[in-house]
Each structure stands twice: as structure tokens, then as C-alpha cells.
What we know:
Layout: H1 7-16, E1 20-24, H2 28-40, E2 45-50, H3 51-57, H4 59-72, E3 78-85, H5 88-96, E4 101-104, H6 111-127, E5 131-136, E6 140-142, E7 147-148, H7 161-168, E8 172-175, E9 180-181, E10 192-193, E11 199-200, H8 206-215, E12 221-223, H9 231-239, H10 252-259, E13 263-268, H11 270-286, H12 293-316
Parallel strand pairs: 1-2, 1-13, 2-3, 3-4, 4-5, 5-8, 6-9, 8-12, 12-13
Antiparallel strand pairs: 6-7, 10-11
Helix pairs in contact: 2-4, 2-12, 3-4, 5-6, 9-11, 11-12
The structure holds glyceraldehyde-3-phosphate, 1,3-dihydroxyacetonephosphate and zinc ion.
Amino acid sequence: MALVTSKEMFRKAYDGGYAIGAFNVNNMEIVQGITEAARDLEAPLILQVSKGARAYANHTYLVKLVEAAVAECPNIPIVLHLDHGPDFETCKSCIDGGFTSVMIDASSKPFAENVEITKKVVEYAHDHGVVVEAELGTLAGIEDEVKVASHEASYTHPEEVEEFVSKTGCDSLAIAIGTSHGAYKFKPEQCTRNADGILVPPPLRFDVLEEVTKRLPGFPIVLHGSSSVPQEFVKKINEYGGQMPNAIGVPEDQLRQAARSAVCKINIDSDLRLAMTATIREHFANHPGDFDPRQYLKPARQAIKDMVAHKIVDVLGCDHKA
Ligand code: G3H
Ligand code: 13P
Ligand code: ZN
């Protein structure tokens, strides 16, 4: 199967009450870990590449790695998506360079400007058979290329979504309902503690999602910042010399609930980083003499595969939907 757009995937996910996992890729082991899990579970898949990933690994290398995965996984549909495209030029470069889906993220701009930039990307993308994700509302969080302070983050205003979608013609919409990027999604003071003293973050704003869905029936919604920051990885990282105090993510039961709704795409990157880092730290602690990268990248790739398999089955519900 060649690379596909997410059009058909989202229609089936919407009707079927599940979501597609959109996982960020930066190198071969990450691509392999994710795609082996999706292939074994017959799950449709989105592999996404950020501006930072293109700067790190080079556009051509990433496209070729994904093309290799497509060849190795003929039983599943795979989308190659630009994550957080910052401007028209980056989107154009990915559209011209083999991507089947792009995100234009002008969510930090005023509404009219967001509409204008998004519309320009949509016109070019649709002329080239590529679909477009846009964003309304801003998420808090810190990555290389996505930095929004929590006080600047705001939930999506449902009253804006119809006008935005009809004016831009975008194919899916990322909304802000309380998720955020990175491994520190909530400050401890925003959380409560359960009986075991574990931090419990505030619930996602399902009321905002519901309001958006009412105004855009049948339209695919996207959730960014949806890593759950598994505590077993955080514990392992801290146990083996790392320092990630108070790392916390979105509880998986809330993501499962979102996947049953109009949310058709759930973005996960930080959990891949945690799985890989925890495994490599543990490996070096137990095998201090190892220096062949294959010795520690092999278990790291396996940890990614296991984590993604868990997400596909227990969070996204997209196993055997290829
Ligand atoms: O939302 C952003 C993704 O986690 C990508 O992060 O810009 O560090 O590649 P990055
Ligand atoms: P996480 O940082 O929660 O993994 O979010 C990733 C993301 O939204 C990529 O666009
Ligand atoms: Zn994101």
C-alpha cells in the first residue's frame, strides 16, 4: 500500500468510535518500533514529522525511512504528516516533498490571520491531493519548536469553529481542551492527590469538545499533547540517574473517552521519548561496558513497540481497523 491521506481513516474512526495514533518520528528505531506495533495489530497509522525533526534528521532521510516502513507494512494504511507546520513555505516544502498531510499551526495568531494562512495552505494542499489539519486555541507546553507558556494557553472557543472551518476548508481541526505538550503537563498545584499520594491532574474539558462536536457534526477533531507520561518510565529514568521530578501526563482513561468521540487523531511524542530514554538509562546502568549502539537501541526500539501496542489497543482502540 502506498502512503495515504487521512480522509478515509478519519471517516472510519469517527463512525467506529476510535482514534488513530499520530506518533512523532525522528530516527530509524522510532519509525521501526511504531510501525512494527501497528503492523502486528493491523492498526491504521499516522507518522508525523515536526520542523525540529526535519532539522535534526533531514527531510529526505525521514521520507525514505517512512517509505521503507510502508514497504515493510503492506497490510496497514500509513499517513506521512507534517506536525505543527509554522508557515506556508514549510507546508509547501512537505507537500512538494511527498507528505500526504500537513498541519498549519497559526493558532498563536489572531483569528483572521489564522484563517488567512490556513486557507492559503489548504488551497495549495488540496490542489496537490494533500489534506490539512489546522488549530484553534493554544496549548501550553515546551518542545524545541512549540513553546507556549501556560498563561498564554487558552481553550478553543466553540463559537469560532464553524466560521473557521467553513472559511478555511481545512480537513481536521486541533482544539485545546486542557492537554499540553511535553512531559510536565500539569503543575502539582493544579492537581489533587489520590489515596496513594499520586498526583491526579484536572480533567479535560469534555464540555468544550462536546460543544465543538455539536457545531461541526461529523468533522474530525485532533488532540495534541496527548502523552500520558507513564509513571513506570518516569520512575525508571529517575532511578537510573535521570531527573524528571513531577513529570505528569493526561490519564489514559480520559484519552480513551476522547477516542470514542469526534476525536479521530491523538498525538503522542513525549511517551516515545520516555520509553526510549528509560530503557537506555536502564541498559547503561546494568551494562556499563556496552558501547555498541545496537546493544542499547535494540531494547529501546522494543520498548517503543510495546508502548505503542498498548496505546493502540487500550487507548486508541484502533487495532484491527486497517
Ligand atoms: O508537538 C510537538 C512534538 O512533540 C514535536 O516536538 O518540535 O521537539 O520535534 P519537537
Ligand atoms: P506530547 O508532548 O503530549 O507527546 O504531544 C505531542 C504532540 O502534540 C505532537 O504534535
Ligand atoms: Zn502538538
